[in-house]
């Protein structure tokens, strides 16, 4: 079965993804940093919708995936809290300074997360040897690896993704992400034979604020407090239709 995972940064996105039939959700904060651990208020609200597959990214900051002892402790505590709340899966992972998988620490996270599912996120794409990294994740018992084939986008990395799917031999799910959208999902399926696809579905809309202070910026120079990030429901709907088409053809 082909599946669609939607990465969402708002409760509006969760509700639309549920209504439109996305198979799995990944809750995140801070889209400009590639996703960090969402607030637990957001997580609780998402779980309350009743979606059967709510995953959260557990990543304490943006940047690299080489973590201090304090950061590792934060990751573990966030996984414990996610389990208490009834989250269905976590998305996390740790690297060594040499670009290899930090197996001892990642094993701790997997054991701590059980029985929740465990996805190793795109830290995988920053490893020095993707074949060895995949073998390590299989050895660790990771359920899913999210990857763009070590490239900026999945389309650019499609040849490596195809190789990863072949190497995985069904022992780990290969989840294709980065730049995935309804217009290229069929091409990716034909090129890689992957069965799971991950995409974000966000768009910016104008704030409903009536008063604007032109002399103030609360974030970095690229931020705009008078634009609001929300869900692109049309994108989800079209992607769900592609998944349905692929499943029908597969039958």
UniProtKB/TrEMBL annotation:
Coiled coil: none annotated. Gene3D superfamilies: Copper homeostasis (CutC) domain. The keyword Cytoplasm applies. It is found in: Cytoplasm. InterPro entries: CutC-like, CutC-like_dom_sf. PANTHER family: COPPER HOMEOSTASIS PROTEIN CUTC, COPPER HOMEOSTASIS PROTEIN CUTC HOMOLOG. This is PF03932 family protein CutC.
């Amino acid at each position: 079965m082909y599946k669609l995972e939607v990465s969402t940064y708002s409760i509006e996105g969760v509700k639309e993804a549920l209504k439109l039939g996305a198979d799995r959700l990944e809750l995140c904060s801070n889209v400009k940093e590639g996703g960090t651990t969402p607030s637990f208020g957001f997580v609780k609200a998402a779980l309350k919708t009743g979606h059967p597959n709510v995953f959260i990214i557990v990543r304490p900051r943006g940047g690299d995936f080489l973590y201090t002892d304090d950061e590792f402790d934060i990751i573990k505590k966030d996984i414990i809290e996610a389990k208490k709340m009834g989250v269905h899966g976590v998305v996390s992972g740790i690297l060594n300074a040499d670009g290899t998988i930090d197996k001892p620490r990642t094993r701790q996270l997997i054991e701590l997360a059980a029985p929740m599912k465990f996805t190793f996120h795109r830290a995988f794409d920053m490893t020095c040897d993707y074949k060895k990294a995949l073998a390590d994740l299989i050895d660790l018992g990771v359920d899913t690896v999210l990857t763009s084939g070590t490239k900026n986008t999945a389309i650019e990395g499609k040849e490596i993704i195809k190789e990863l799917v072949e190497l995985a031999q069904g022992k780990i799910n290969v989840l294709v992400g980065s730049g995935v959208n309804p217009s290229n999902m069929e091409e990716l399926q034909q090129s890689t034979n992957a069965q799971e696809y991950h995409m974000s579905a966000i768009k910016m809309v104008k704030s409903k604020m009536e008063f604007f202070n032109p002399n103030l910026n609360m974030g970095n120079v690229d931020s705009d407090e008078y634009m609001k990030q929300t869900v692109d429901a049309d994108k989800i709907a079209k992607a769900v239709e592609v998944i349905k088409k692929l499943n029908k053809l597969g039958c």
